[in-house]
Write a structure and sequence with these properties.
With about 140 residues, this protein is an alpha/beta fold. It is built from 3 helices and 8 strands; from the N terminus they run βαββαβαββββ.
């Protein structure tokens, strides 16, 4: 049975800030990583080395990915999303992103630059197109 992709990405504000910081720190190269969570809510950001060190594509370090997956499984969490950055363009999936979508049932989040500001968008990717998934920033307790 096919898994359904979640209808939204529930993101803690600290995790949003962390993903955007990772993207900014790695610019002008693409950054990448994994977002893990429990019951659909983000719990941890796993930065993963982009082994290509490229301005226009990424390949997650296999060993770091494996360690992240082990940690996620050990904690009883789920992989909520894979993320990467577009340091030189808006956060819109590229043809390469669509062609290299190896996890079609997982949200893909892209941090992109719009003028001087970073923005995060989430998508369900297909081979030829994509659907945007809303990102819900969780309120912080007062």
């Amino acid at each position: 049975m096919d898994e359904l992709i979640p209808s939204q990405l529930n993101l803690h504000p600290d995790h949003l800030a962390e993903i955007l910081s990772i993207a900014s720190q790695n610019a002008p190269y693409e950054a990448c990583g994994i977002l893990a969570g429990e019951n659909g809510f983000s719990c941890k950001v796993y930065p993963i080395l982009n082994t290509l060190q490229s301005r226009s594509e990424y390949l997650m370090d296999a060993e770091q990915m494996l360690h992240a997956f082990w940690d996620i499984e050990e904690k009883g969490w789920q992989t909520l999303a894979f993320f990467h950055s577009h340091p030189n363009s808006p956060p819109i999936p590229s043809a390469t992103d669509l062609a290299r979508n190896f996890y079609p049932h997982t949200i893909h989040a892209i941090a992109g630059k719009i003028e001087t500001r970073w923005e995060l968008k989430a998508y369900q990717l297909f081979k030829q197109n994509y659907n945007e998934i809303p990102i819900v920033i969780l309120p912080t307790p007062e």
